[in-house]
Amino acid sequence: LKEKITTSTDLQHQLEKLKQQHQEQQTAQQTTTSKLREAQNDLEQVLRQIGDKDQKIQNLEALLEKSKKNISLLEKEREDLYAKIQAGEGETAVLNQLQEKNHTLQEQVTQLTEKLKNQSESHKQAQEDLHEQVQEQKSQLRASQDRVLSLETTLGELNSQLNESKEKIGQLDLQVF
Hints:
Elements: H1 2-86, H2 92-176
Helix pairs in contact: 1-2
């Protein structure tokens, strides 16, 4: 009888230990799930940032295209006016004014082109950085999923051991009484 009581006590200690391990693994699984959600949220934010940068580049390209059309139109007007001047219908002042306007517009185009180039380079670098972050998040996500699977397997084993221990305790209780 003492031996059965000792065995029963040992099994109860094992049962408590298994319950504690089970609780620790549940906590670890919850932590892993929380990290997984955070990684998914970070990934969504990164994708939104990429979309915003794409929109800015499209806007700058449209502005550059509009400026180029304006320059083309002004150059045509300048050529027409220059032809009139050659025919003696204009004055030197008008020519000087057109040359200044042309120079100003060329500077604007140069500035816009440079700005677009800088934006494109910045966007490309940001995309590369975001791609690296996405890959890192995916890697962390895979590791978390592997950890969850491992914890679920261990949990299944512990539950099986727990059930076996409960059966043994039940059998010992029946034998004691």
